[in-house]
Structures are given as structure tokens and as C-alpha cells.
Amino acid sequence: MNIFVGDNAQGKTNILEAIAFLALTKSHRIGVNPNIIEFGKEKTKLTGTISKNKVISKLQIEMTDNSKKLKINHSDIRKVANYISYLNIIIFTPDDLEIIKGSPNIRRNLLNIQLSQISQEYLKSINEYNKILKTRNEYLKIIFSNSIADNTYLDIITDKLIEKAIIIYQSRKRYIDCINLELDDYFHKIYGEKGLKVLYVPNISFDDFEYETIRKKLKHVLKKNYLKELNYGMTIYGPHRDDFIFEFNSNDIKYYGSQGQQRLAILCFKLSEINIFNEFTGTTPVLLLDDIFSELDVRKRNKLLKIIGNSDIQSIITTTDLKNINKKFVETACVFKVDNGNVERK
Fold this sequence. Notes:
CATH architecture of the largest domain: Up-down Bundle
Number of domains: 2
CATH superfamily of the largest domain: RecF/RecN/SMC, N-terminal domain
CATH class of the largest domain: Mainly Alpha
Structural class: alpha/beta
Distance between the termini: 14 Å
């Protein structure tokens, strides 16, 4: 357990953001990417040395406004898919409340980031799906404006889209099922009550998530809504319109939960991911918790620290002070003081 302590605006979050960027090749922040390059500078460079399965690797990202270069052990990496997964992270920040309160796109993005870290097949499939989706949308517009366009080509594109969609649907359903195996237990340990679960909500209703069930249903829905999609000039149905919701005692926590319950639900979601990463990658991710103590009362924060302290996960936590934290956790942690961008071991 590593605790970075300092006043606000001293650079604590920058440390977590650097680690997250080094792992994901992009910012973890909700919404558009923030400015990574320091104001007035032309480029930025991130380097980090990691130990994974007793193998030491050096990661590097060099970025300008127009380019991004990835390296592992000083060798250029041209595909992001060959870089991601070297450093796996799970990150919780105050902005994560938007996972519940924000648009479905934010929740889909969370699934994409996490699944891409543990599955190269998923990363490849979601990238190919988005490319095919763009092609299909463009061709729908061509058909709408040109009656002699070839519908046979649209059928070929649609079949390719469905093949990738099946992998995405199955991966997301399996991931959320795995989350639910531990989600409520974590919630009970910290909050003291049970009844939390996550529901996967595709915009198509499936009887099950078997290959042939998904293929037939999606093909039927796309064929049935052909004219509607033609008028809109876009693909209306598919995993690019997926969503998931948090339910507490069968009520949507977005509308019927307090802000404290919502934030804790997201935190427990993140904690539930730890074992999934272990199972799929054979390694433990790094847990990054930004300003977590300000969101929890003393009892809950010490329960959280007990969970983290009893695991073998490397955790990096930021806070403005060490008050009201059980001394035994502080004594066994590595504590760093952050002051105006300078970091000093205490």
C-alpha cells in the first residue's frame, strides 16, 4: 500500500494519471482527453519500469499534439494491441460518479477499457467492429441518396458486423456476470447491507447469449429495421448502443440511491474487477484510488483499507491528510509527501 499525501493542486492526481496513461495509452478521465502535454511545451514523455511474473519491462510513451510513439524495452510498438496488457490497472476517481449519472457511452467506454486490458481478442474485435460500423453507416447514406446502390454489399458488411458484435456481446455479458459474483459481498463489507447488482442492458433483448441466438436475433432486427436505419443514415441496433445499470434492492441506484451509495457502488465494482484480472491475465492489477478518503466516513474508509491490506494487490492512494485513518494501515504503508510536484518518502 502506497499513500501519497498533500494539499490540493500539488500534483497527487498527476501521478495516478501518469500511471494510467502509461497503462492505457490514453487518459482515464471521463469525457474527452484532457491536455496531457504541459502548457507551452511541444511534447511529453512517460516512462515506467514494471515487474510482471518476475520479468522486468520498461514502458515508454512519447507524445506530441499529432503523434504518439509506444516502446517496450526500447523497441517500437506499432500496434496498441501489442502494448496494452503489459501494465494492468484499476482506477477510481471522484469523476467516476459519472459512470452512474452520465450517458451510456461512459459505461460502454469503461467496459471497453477494462476488457481490452484482459483480452486481445476483445480489443481487436471492438476496433474492427467500429471500423465496420463506420463503413456500414456511410453505405446506408449512399443507398439513401442513390437508388442504384448495391444492397448485396450492405449484406456482406452487415454479416461482418454481426460476427464482431457476437464477440463483444458475449465478452461483456461474461464480464458483468463475473462482477456480480463479488460485487454485493464487497458492498456488504463496506456499507453493511446487501442487495447490489449490475444488470447488462443491450438495446436488443436476447433469450440467451449463445452464438447462434445472438446471430439470428441481430440479423432479424437489422433486417426488420432496414428502412428506419436508411432514413437515419446509421446503424441503430448493436453493441455500440449497449448499457448497464446498478440496482440496489431492485431499484435503479441512479434514481433511487444517495450519492454516497452511488459512489460506493462504483468503488465495489472496481474492487470486483481485481479477481477478474487475476483469472484472465494471471497477474494482479495495480489499484489506483484518487482522493478516496474524502468520499467515505471513517468507518467505511478503514473497512476499505482492511480489504486492500489483506490482499496482495499493489495499491496507490492519494489523500489530503492521514487523519482518521487507522494507524496500523499507515505504519505498514509506504507514505509519500507531495508538495508542488515534488515527491518525498516520509
